[in-house]
Design a protein that fits this description.
It comes from Streptomyces fulvorobeus. It is built from ten helices and nine strands. With about 270 residues, the chain is an alpha/beta fold. Helix 1 crosses helix 8 and helix 2 packs parallel to helix 3. The protein starts with a helix and ends with a strand.
Amino acid sequence: MDAGTRARDWAEIQERMLAPLYEAVYQRLEVGADTRMLAIGCGSGLALLIAAARGAHVTGVDTDRERLALARERLLPGSGWDGGPGRPPAERPMLFAGGPAEAAPAASAAPYNLLTAFNPIGCVAGDSEGLAPALESAVRLSARGTTVVLTGWGPPERCATAPVLRVAARLAESARAPRSAGLRAACRDDLEDVAARAGLKPDGSGRVSCPFGYADMDSAVRGLLSTGLFDSAVRATDRSQVEKEVAEALHPHRRPDGTVWMPNVFRYLVCVS
């Protein structure tokens, strides 16, 4: 599968599964017209779109150029989103390839007052590497006392998807793939550890139900593989083998009507810079 197809599978199938998490965070923080948000790892832009619909001025950065291209389709002129009544052109969304340093506000612009890292950590070994330095870089572009939000997977016993994700670890380990990233159970203090390394002060947390629901088995397999969590398994074996074993692992979650449904819980941590 090429990178463009996988990015579109993420945008069209998988990304919406995290919408309840975005909504819960924005509701708690009262995101609105006074919010200047920088999203680290903005992906294909759904979280930005939801914040912009609440009146926020949004900026996103991501290293995945294919997902970022889809975010531009959604958010920039020509995408059908006009910014809402009374929103000046200067307040249009801004999207940058790379890290937070690429998104430094113009000298005349107000600094960011909300930083988000909505890519959940705590599932793959090493999935938080690089996040603390990225947060430190983003904090330098923000106002004093800026709110920072980190997100992670909930405990495995609350995530029906956890056994399916373990397929990736088993396939990678059985083939002894070099540099394979093993999946692991989320730890209670994953988010707090990242916050501490980034010099952030925790200021509350929450859990949000984010069920993964798919129209059919094909959509479920495509959506899960679009996350990147199965990349090591694909490299160790081949895509068809991974697809077959993921489908088998999903079988207990298939309903009589052919849909696939897996309840999950995700956690977020609110910090202050």
